[in-house]
Design goal:
The chain is an alpha+beta fold. The strands form four sheets. Strands 7, 8, 9, 10, 13, 14, 15, 16 and 17 form a nine-stranded mixed beta sheet that branches. Strands 3-2-5-6 form a four-stranded antiparallel beta sheet, with no helix packed on it. A two-stranded antiparallel sheet has the order 1-4. Strand 11 and strand 12 form a beta hairpin. Helix 1 crosses helix 2. The longest helix is centred in the C-terminal third of the chain and has 15 residues.
Length: about 240
């Protein structure tokens, strides 16, 4: 069973906040009974109407987006900054970003209106592999890379083992480029990991999540995830959880 306002929002009819307003105004009925209780829960099969008209379920959609620099992973921004949703003007469903990339970070991002899928992708125990292309200030050595791969402590919690490959080093500009594969996705984790061993991240780009990459997409472009991609992502995440 789920809260009434959440079900209305999930249908794509309106936002959760506006759904709460509709309930307060007495415009929502469940199985013919007017509901004004904000915590009211409904079950599958209940008939929900607004102003006498039943709400319709929204088709579940799944997108992969090449996030460019200079936009935030949010539905709106009080500072007026561009959001990832601004790139989806022709999509009628109420989609939202799954997880986050920093304002200056580029790369792959999923968006959907499927809450169950979103929760599965973001759940810590899902352990979906993510691959990043990282440029850092400084010349990193094999000893430090080995240390990071085994896991390091961030705010008292040890990171899970990861794989790091040194791609190149630029002695003139005193920088290193590495590829890192990990199964965690904590807030600013990669930047914090390198900061903890004395390096700052100059450029961060997420190349791949699970079985999906950005092939064929340019910054700011998106495409529908194919059904087999969604299925494989679900299977991998569920297998990792068991």
């Amino acid at each position: 069973m789920e809260r009434l306002q959440k079900v209305i929002a999930a249908s794509g009819y309106t936002s959760r906040r506006k759904a709460e307003d509709l309930i307060r105004q007495g415009r929502v009925e469940v199985n013919g009974e007017k509901i004004i209780e904000m915590g009211f829960k409904v079950k599958s099969g209940d008939l929900i109407t607004i102003d006498g008209k039943p709400i319709e379920g929204e088709n579940k959609v799944y997108y992969v987006f090449y996030k460019p620099k200079g936009c935030i992973c949010s539905l709106s921004d009080e500072l007026g900054r561009r959001t990832v949703i601004d790139y989806f003007g022709d999509v009628k469903e109420r989609i939202y970003p799954i997880g986050r990339l920093d304002y200056d970070t580029t790369g792959i991002l999923f968006l959907s209106n499927d809450g169950e899928f979103a929760n599965l992708m973001m759940h810590p125990s899902s352990h979906l592999e993510k691959i990043y292309d990282v440029t850092i200030n400084g010349l990193i050595n094999k000893k430090t890379i080995s240390q990071m791969q085994k896991g390091i402590y961030l705010e008292g919690v040890k990171t899970l083992p990861c794989r790091i490959k040194l791609v190149s080093q630029d002695e003139e500009h005193h920088s290193s480029r590495v590829m890192i594969k990990l199964v965690e996705g904590k807030n600013r984790q990669i930047k914090k990991m390198f900061e903890s061993v004395g390096f700052t991240v100059k450029r961060l780009h997420r190349m791949q999540i699970g079985n999906v990459n950005l092939d064929g997409l340019k910054p700011g472009e998106y495409r529908r995830l194919k059904p087999h991609e969604v299925k494989e992502l679900r299977q991998v995440a569920l297998n990792k959880k068991t």
